[in-house]
Design a protein that fits this description.
The complex is a heterotrimer. Chain A is of the alpha/beta class. Chain A has helices at residues 42-49, 74-80, 96-106, 112-125, 141-153, 171-186, 198-204, 222-227, 232-243, and strands spanning 4-13, 16-26, 31-36, 57-62, 65-66, 81-84, 159-163, 190-194, 207-212, 215-220. The longest helix of chain A is centred in the last third of the chain and has 16 residues, at 171-186. The radius of gyration of chain A is 18 Å and the shape is globular. Chain B has two domains: 45-150 and 251-292, D-Maltodextrin-Binding Protein, domain 2 (3-Layer(aba) Sandwich); 153-243, Periplasmic binding protein-like II (D-Maltodextrin-Binding Protein, domain 2), CATH 3.40.190.10. Chain B has helices spanning 2-24, 88-100, 114-117, 136-141, 184-193, 205-213, 224-234, 263-276, 279-288, and strands spanning 56-60, 107-111, 127-128, 142-144, 149-151, 153-158, 177-180, 200-202, 219-223, 238-243, 251-253, 256-258. In chain B, α5 links the parallel β7 (177-180) and β8. Chain C is built from twelve helices and no strands. Chain C has helices at 10-20, 26-53, 58-65, 68-108, 115-130, 133-146, 156-182, 185-193, 198-213, 215-228, 240-251, 255-289. Chain C is flat and about 75 Å long. In chain C, 33% of the residues are buried. Classes of the chains: A alpha/beta, B alpha/beta, C mainly alpha. The interface between B and C is large, with 47 and 42 residues.
């Protein structure tokens, strides 16, 4: 039984068909990176997995259960999946600690002391404990994104979805976020990561999927995809990346 | 130096302002009356001071209520029609008009809201007749004719309510009373009854009557004849609890004229004739007889 | 004006600012400019005061509007009546803030199953804003008790308060709505992604941000409410405006209107300044934070 199974997923926005039949399976503890041009459907796929977008066709299974069935409580599904966005989306009217403890308290029913203990431990693990009483606008982009990751982790999800989480950061702040993700991978978290950071993907992914126009054109272990891509379009894409100095 | 220039400028400005303000303040001067000199006025029809020559323009409020006005109302008048000659004030008005030499067709009526009739300013009527009580404050800004009716205030209550068993003025103190804005009825409540509960004052009599109907006020103070109209027509199950003793000097209704209008002298002459030849009394018998039988509250 | 992220050079910015301040040219001329401004203002004021007080109608105007004895004589009664106005708006405002929030939330519910509630909220907003407040107060103040139904309160103050609450909730609901719409959808997405239900997301994430943003327009409506308490006088209740009318009708001078006006203004001006201050502080905060605030 796989941790996540995406079967025949189609998704359109109006006349625009963004996902044209995605099939993807993740095993427990597997880290899969999605690469591809903007508009290829990476973000949309992640949002579909998280049930933020309804599917036009296809099914999604989490740990063997179909989560796209009508009678499924999407709130309880989302508890089990953590997602971090490009734009951090921290709650600006709450402190860092409150951002982290909100869902554990309101959704998981944890008491305040327990939620805060869990939150502080997580924040400490990623070097953010001394910022716990600050408001997000006082943190750097890198710090905010790390808090966003901690916020998602505080729910102890089965699966983490990362949607280009470093794309909005200044270059010197990217490294600190990537190191957090490395740690998560090392700790065995099942992750589906959409990213532009190719060297990072090459380092941590067990598998890389290249998305092109709503389909997975090619997938395989990083050394295969990056060194010897089979599809011509994959090659083109990687060549452009290399030219831009990002690989 | 820049600094001294600024300071000097400020000081000058401040001093000048102070001087002007000081000149502006001071005791209020009495404004001059707008009336002309009073010489013996001729009251022949041709010499009268009218807004519209050849016609006598009389003002009153709309709707026109019995027993002051009667007859079937025709547009634009509601409830009663001043042009009918029925009702006490309509009858008195036409009687005065006749004395001045005007036939019925030479009289026109104008809608004038109660509150504006005795407010200061130029009037577009020759006189207004609308249960307007004489008061010194009002007389400062308009002219009043002599009395055409000596009036008592009365209080209307709902039958079967606690206030309905009151038999004296002091017994009215604990209740919520109401009157129309700007009326002597309100002054009466404030000055004579002095209730312990804040009274209500309504922009129109309609509101006051509605509030009485809704039992939102306990008693409504109006002049006696109006009180009878209220109980007879407007508020079922109500009664005139009583009338209040006539004040020394009495309260009376007068017609209202623009300040300084010489016409008032001629109208007073007419009223004097109507009084001495018994017409006024006869008209009161005819129109207001029913409206006088209420106990006097002391 | 120079703003965060303005990449133009400082001299350019200074020049533009100087042009914006136009005729005063304070930037260029410092204290001398200030002095000239003050003197010319003073001369202008003096000219107006002189022109007014020397005009033919001034004594009459002063007697009618500005007679100190008249104003100070009527002031105590009006001030006492004004306490009622204050009580009315304090009580009503609480209910308005709550009812309007309910309506705004109803209106924001999505999905076909909630259509009747949304429709109800829309109809309510339209009626509340479409019918003149004075009409609503008269309808309820006189009309409701006239039904003589058991349990229906008779008090005119009660119904006037209900009328004000119903009308103002319509306006304030729109203000809340604007606030809710202004919160970026990514906030709701983030909240839902954590497993929060729609209601939890609304309560914990969206509404706190929405309400903070619309405090200036909320205060604005509050100021409007303070003045509309005068409408209660149409039911006969003696509040400040009614009391000033009583005095005016007795004396035919309008100083009492001024006294009532002064009281209302004394109440609303501090709130207006507070609103301005909140807007300025918020603008500073947003410029400092940048990004997604």
């Amino acid at each position: 039984m796989s941790a996540l199974k995406v079967e025949g997923v189609h998704k359109s926005f109006g006349p625009n068909e963004v996902l044209r039949g995605i099939d993807l399976e993740l095993e427990d503890h597997e880290v899969v990176c999605l690469i591809g041009a903007s508009g290829s459907g990476k973000s949309t796929l992640l949002r579909c997995v998280n049930l933020l977008e309804p599917l036009d066709a296809g099914r999604i299974f989490l740990a063997g259960e179909e989560i796209t069935r009508r009678d499924v409580d999407s709130n309880s599904v989302r508890r089990r999946i953590g997602i971090v966005f490009q734009a951090f989306n921290l709650f600006p009217h709450m402190t860092v600690l409150r951002n982290v403890t909100l869902a554990p308290r309101d959704v998981l029913g944890l008491g305040r002391a327990e939620a805060e203990a869990r939150g502080r431990e997580l924040l400490a693990r990623f070097g953010l404990e001394d910022r716990r009483d600050e408001y997000p606008d006082r943190l750097s982009g890198g710090q905010q994104q790390r808090v966003a990751i901690v916020r998602a982790l505080a729910m102890q999800p089965e699966l983490m979805l990362l949607d280009e989480v470093t794309s909005a950061l200044d270059p010197e702040l990217v490294a600190e976020v990537l190191s957090v993700i490395r740690e998560l991978a090392a700790g065995g978290m099942t992750m589906l990561i959409a990213t532009h950071e190719m060297s990072f993907a090459r380092d941590i992914a067990h598998r890389v999927c290249f998305l092109e126009e709503g389909r997975i054109l090619e997938q395989g272990p990083p050394h295969e995809i990056f060194a010897q891509p089979k599809e011509p379009r994959t090659q083109q894409f990687l060549e452009r990346i290399i030219e831009a100095g990002r690989l | 130096m820049k600094g001294t220039l600024a300071t000097r400028g400020l000081l000058t400005a401040a001093l000048v302002l102070l001087a002007v303000l000081a000149a502006g303040c001071g005791s209020t001067k009495e404004s001059g009356a707008t009336g002309g000199t009073t010489t013996t006025t001729s009251c022949s029809k041709g010499d009268l001071n009218l807004v519209s020559s050849g016609t006598l323009t009389i003002g009153t409020d709309n709707p026109a209520f019995p027993p002051w006005f009667g007859g079937t109302a025709k547009k634009p008048w509601q409830v009663s029609d001043p042009r009918s000659g029925q009702g006490y004030e309509s009858a008195v008005a036409y009687a005065v008009a006749k004395q001045l030499g005007f036939s019925k067709d030479e009289v026109t009526w104008k809608h004038v809201p109660f509150n504006t009739s005795f407010a200061p300013g130029t009037k577009d009527f020759d006189f207004d007749i609308n249960q307007i009580s004489f008061s010194p404050a009002r007389a400062k800004v308009v002219d009043f004719s002599d009395s055409y009716y000596d009036v008592n205030q009365a209080v209307v209550v709902n039958k079967g309510t606690p206030i309905a068993s009151a038999t004296s003025v002091s017994a009215l103190k604990p209740y919520e009373l109401g009157a129309q804005l700007g009326t002597t009825s309100y002054q009466f409540i404030k000055d004579e009854i002095k209730p312990s509960k804040q009274p209500s004052v309504f922009p129109s009599n309609a509101g006051a009557v509605q509030a009485l109907k809704n039992k939102q006020i306990d008693g409504l103070v109006v002049d006696l004849p109006t009180a009878f109209y209220v109980t007879a027509v407007q508020v079922p199950n109500s009664k005139v609890l009583g009338q209040f003793p006539t004040q020394p000097g009495g309260e009376h209704f007068g017609m209202v004229f623009q300040k300084g209008n010489s016409l008032v002298t001629c109208v007073n002459k007419a009223l004097s004739t109507l009084r001495s030849d018994g017409t006024l009394k006869q008209l009161q018998q005819q129109w207001l007889a029913k409206a006088t039988g209420a106990p006097t509250l002391k | 004006m120079a703003s965060e992220g303005d990449r133009r050079s400082d001299p350019e910015v200074a020049e533009r600012r100087s042009r914006l301040l136009g005729g005063l040219r304070l930037e260029g001329e410092g204290a001398r400019g200030v002095a000239i401004a003050l003197i010319s203002t003073a001369v202008f004021l003096v000219a107006i005061v002189v022109a007014v007080t020397q005009s033919a109608g001034w004594p009459e105007v002063r007697r009618t509007f500005f007679d100190w004895g008249d104003i100070s004589g009527s002031f105590p009664d009006i001030a006492r009546a004004f306490v009622l106005n204050v009580k009315i708006f304090l009580v009503c405002e609480v209910f308005i803030l709550v009812l309007a929030l309910v309506i705004a939330v109803l209106r924001s519910l999505q999905g076909p199953v909630f259509f009747p509630l949304r429709a109800l909220a829309i109809i309510y907003s339209d009626l509340a804003r479409g019918i003149p407040t004075i009409l609503v107060i008269a309808l309820l103040g006189f009309g409701a008790p006239a039904l003589q139904l058991t349990g229906v309160p008779r008090s005119r103050l009660f119904w006037a308060g209900v009328g004000l609450v119903l009308v103002y909730s319509g306006y304030v609901a729109e203000v809340y709505r604007a606030g809710i719409e202004s919160v970026h959808p990514s906030q709701e997405a983030a909240a839902r992604s954590l497993g929060l239900s729609r209601f939890q997301a609304l309560r914990r994430v969206i509404l706190p941000q929405a309400i903070r943003r619309v405090i200036p327009p909320l205060l604005n409506d509050f100021i409007g409410l303070q003045k509309d308490t005068a409408l209660v006088g149409t039911l006969g209740v003696i509040e400040a405006f009614n009391q000033s009318q009583i005095d005016t009708n007795a004396t035919f001078t309008y100083g009492s209107y001024l006294a009532a006006a002064a009281l209302f203004v004394a109440l609303t001006i501090p709130l207006a300044r507070l609103t301005d201050w909140l807007i300025a502080r918020d603008r500073k905060r947003r410029q400092a934070a940048g990004g997604f605030a």
